[in-house]
């Protein structure tokens, strides 16, 4: 009887298995959004790396601020540099980036030269059905954590559940369309989705860090971690002094060292991070050779300070490295949770006060271009008037939108660069009058006689020099604009709790944006501490357009929704837009080799190595100084 039952079950299951196999449309090692991965399933290594890059040497990097936590996945504490999430395959992003450390690995690893594309890393192959309601990752059985314990599907499921329950709020927002994660066997994990409309979910779940359940199950995940964690990546945490330094040590027995996604990368034996509280001291440490590599984000220093002897002798290389990434957005965000910024006309008046032409000419050596879109250098940037397709999306929300969305192309003021263009003041004054303000005794006051006042919160003292002239210009209109600089830890806490009036921000760019926009702009994130919704935005039109972007089935639909959203965000005047550049300003002591093949990212330190001959020559030259 038992034999007959087993045979009957086998017969019944055969057509089901055959049907499932027919439905599988992928059994490869790469996935992308709205396209096809560029590399074949059997690629030997990324084509932009040096597969024979030598291993060895040490690199020292400088970081401004402090740290007290080796668990970067929670709000509490300040995470150590290099311990960022392994969530490196953000849709539309640049790929793996240059975050040293690499303590935790993910199922997929991003491509440094493709848009929204990732390849199997912990995952050996990937399956998903035609309806795209789930994705399965078949994991490499050789994958282990740094303590030798096998890395299994149970660890993936535990990580997913733990990040949703205890991680930063952004995890819940970005992964809201994931139904569950199931370990079908020790080396196969399946993520089921609530719908097939969110095209980025495969990259999101595949890019999650995989954390060791056995390490955390006897620790409180909600608390900052002050001991070296168990990872699965090429580096382990070696020596460290909380708040002062940390050294990552390459694991020569790393399980993934010979994978196509790893060959040619992670070449340094040791990566040391030294922390500094003062940016001037940080720069002096680089000049002295105590720091090996520096990314320069201050145009004044780039133009005037890189003439020290080591540069003149060729011992320090300085180079502007072009990239082909979307510009992203940076600026000063106004917090509409504050009563003073709830009137759009007040926000518009403050936007008018930014004299970019004077700043760029006098303080930034003409190094930048003005940002005039939330999607600069992408097809999602709005231009001119909305077309018919955009109007179809905007019209249902006409009564919830600024009227200019339908009538006027958005532009920012262009001044004569004198620093005293009265047109800015007049335009701002007219807007404030419409909002019910008037000048009385030299102060801009509302109907109740209260002066218009706010504080601009900064974390980097270097940004004060471009912020103070902006604040001073507002004082000419009787606005009490103060500038306050705090240390990075305090700034993070105030930002996470939305305890600010205006603050600086940087949002990375993307050609194919998706779920990250939910965290930045939707109503659901407005009151979630730690979310990216710094503006406190909550508008049904914004929510609708973001969802259309997240669920767009093709590029044209995505671009139309993106341009419509851009108009809505711009005319809501949430931010004082700042500036951008299409290159990275890099300087380094001449001890490194690096691939010659240009990449979309422009610069990726993960693929550099210490050149022994250069190191020897540099050491000899420095001894002779």
Please, could you describe this protein's structure?
Strands 1-6-7-9-8 form a five-stranded antiparallel β-sheet. A five-stranded mixed β-sheet has the order 20-19-21-15-22. It has a four-stranded mixed β-sheet with strand order 3-12-11-10. A hairpin with a 4-residue loop joins strand 6 and strand 7. The termini are far apart. Helix 11 crosses helix 18 and helix 17 packs antiparallel against helix 18. It is built from 19 helices and 26 strands. It is an alpha+beta fold. Helices cover 28% and strands 20% of the residues.
Please name the defining characteristics of this protein:
625 residues; alpha+beta; D-Maltodextrin-Binding Protein, domain 2; Dipeptide-binding Protein, domain 3; 3 domains; 5-stranded antiparallel sheet; 5-stranded mixed sheet; 28% helix; 20% strand; globular; disordered N terminus
How do the helices and strands line up, and which of them pair or pack?
Elements: H1 2-23, E1 24-28, E2 30-32, E3 58-64, E4 108-110, E5 117-120, E6 123-129, E7 134-139, H2 153-166, H3 169-174, E8 178-185, E9 188-193, H4 201-206, H5 213-216, E10 235-241, E11 245-250, E12 270-276, H6 279-287, E13 293-295, H7 299-304, H8 309-312, E14 316-322, E15 329-334, H9 344-352, H10 356-362, E16 369-370, H11 388-394, H12 404-407, H13 422-434, E17 438-440, E18 443-445, E19 453-458, H14 464-475, E20 480-485, H15 488-496, E21 502-507, H16 516-521, H17 540-550, H18 555-571, E22 575-577, E23 579-580, E24 583-589, E25 592-593, E26 609-610, H19 612-623
Parallel strand pairs: 3-12, 19-20, 19-21
Antiparallel strand pairs: 1-6, 2-5, 4-5, 6-7, 7-9, 8-9, 10-11, 11-12, 13-24, 14-24, 15-21, 15-22, 16-23, 17-18, 25-26
Helix pairs in contact: 9-13, 11-18, 17-18
């Amino acid at each position: 009887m038992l034999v007959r039952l087993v045979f009957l079950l086998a017969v019944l299951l055969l057509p089901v298995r055959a049907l499932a196999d027919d439905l599988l449309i992928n059994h490869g090692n790469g996935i992308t959004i709205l396209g096809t991965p560029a590399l074949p399933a059997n690629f030997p290594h990324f084509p932009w790396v040096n597969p024979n890059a030598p291993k060895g040497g040490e690199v020292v990097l400088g970081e401004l601020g402090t740290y007290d936590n080796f668990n970067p996945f929670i709000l509490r504490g300040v995470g150590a540099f290099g311990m960022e999430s392994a969530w490196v395959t953000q849709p539309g992003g640049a790929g793996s980036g240059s975050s040293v450390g690499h303590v935790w690995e993910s199922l997929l690893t991003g491509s440094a030269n493709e848009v929204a594309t990732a390849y199997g890393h912990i995952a050996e192959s990937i399956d998903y059905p035609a309806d795209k309601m789930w994705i399965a990752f078949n994991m490499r059985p050789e994958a282990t954590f740094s303590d030798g314990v096998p890395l299994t599907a149970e660890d993936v499921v535990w990580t997913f559940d733990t990040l949703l329950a205890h991680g930063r709020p952004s995890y819940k927002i970005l992964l809201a369309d994931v139904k569950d994660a199931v370990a079908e066997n020790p080396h196969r994990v399946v993520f089921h989705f609530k719908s097939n409309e969110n095209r980025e979910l495969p990259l999101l779940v595949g890019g999650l860090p995989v954390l060791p359940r056995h390490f955390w199950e006897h620790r409180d995940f909600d608390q900052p971690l002050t001991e070296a964690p168990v990872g699965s990546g090429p580096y382990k945490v070696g020596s460290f002094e909380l708040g002062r330094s940390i050294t990552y040590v390459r694991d020569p027995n790393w399980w993934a060292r010979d994978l196509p996604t790893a060959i040619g990368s992670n070449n340094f034996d040791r990566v040391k991070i030294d922390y500094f509280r003062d940016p001037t001291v940080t720069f002096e440490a680089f000049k002295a050779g105590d720091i090996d590599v520096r990314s320069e984000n201050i145009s004044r220093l780039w133009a005037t300070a890189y003439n020290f002897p080591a540069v003149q002798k060729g011992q320090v290389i300085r180079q502007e490295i072009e990239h082909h990434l979307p510009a992203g957005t940076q600026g000063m965000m106004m917090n509409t949770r504050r009563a003073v910024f709830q009137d759009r006309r007040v926000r518009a008046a403050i936007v008018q006060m930014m004299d970019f032409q004077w700043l760029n000419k006098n303080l930034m050596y003409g190094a930048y271009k003005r940002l005039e879109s939330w999607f600069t250098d992408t097809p999602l940037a709005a231009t001119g008037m909305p077309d018919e397709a955009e109007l179809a999306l905007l019209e249902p929300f006409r009564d919830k939108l600024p009227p200019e969305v339908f009538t006027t192309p958005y532009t920012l003021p262009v001044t004569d660069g004198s620093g005293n263009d009265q047109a800015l003041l007049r335009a701002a004054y007219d807007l404030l009058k419409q909002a019910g303000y008037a000048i009385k005794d030299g102060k801009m006051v509302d109907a109740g006689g209260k002066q218009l006042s706010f504080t601009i919160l900064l974390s980097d003292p270097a940004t004060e020099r471009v912020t103070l002239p902006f604040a001073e210009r507002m004082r000419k209109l009787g606005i009490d604009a103060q500038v306050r600089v705090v240390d990075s830890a305090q700034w993070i806490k105030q930002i996470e709790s939305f305890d600010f009036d205006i603050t600086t921000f940087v949002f990375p760019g993307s050609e194919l944006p998706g779920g990250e926009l939910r965290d930045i702009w939707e109503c659901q994130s407005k009151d979630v501490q730690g979310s990216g919704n710094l503006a406190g935005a909550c508008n049904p039109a914004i929510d609708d357009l973001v969802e259309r972007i997240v669920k767009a089935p093709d590029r044209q639909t995505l671009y139309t929704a993106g341009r419509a959203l851009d108009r809505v965000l711009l005319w809501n005047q949430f931010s004082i837009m700042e500036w951008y550049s299409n290159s990275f300003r890099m300087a380094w002591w001449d001890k490194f080799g690096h691939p010659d093949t240009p990449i979309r990212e422009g610069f990726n330190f993960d693929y550099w190595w210490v050149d022994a001959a250069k190191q020897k020559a540099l050491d000899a030259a420095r001894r002779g100084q």
